[in-house]
Amino acid sequence: MKTIAVDEITWKKLKKLREKLGVRSYDEIIDKLIEVWQKQELNQSIVDLIQPSEKSSDLVSYILDRKAMKRENQ
Length: 74
Fold this sequence. Notes:
This protein is an all-alpha fold. It is about 80% helix and about 0% strand.
């Protein structure tokens, strides 16, 4: 087991969270916080994969514009 130091305000927040979640230890709170963080990171990764970036959108627009210009010139 390791010990970590937190300031008084953070300790009070952790204490309230422990009571609210109904867990017995601060270790359980930290585990839950890490789990939530990991889920958020995973969700953000999924969003990044699903939503095209600005650069890829620009590239698609450029390609479509070039195709349209070729059709007009034919």
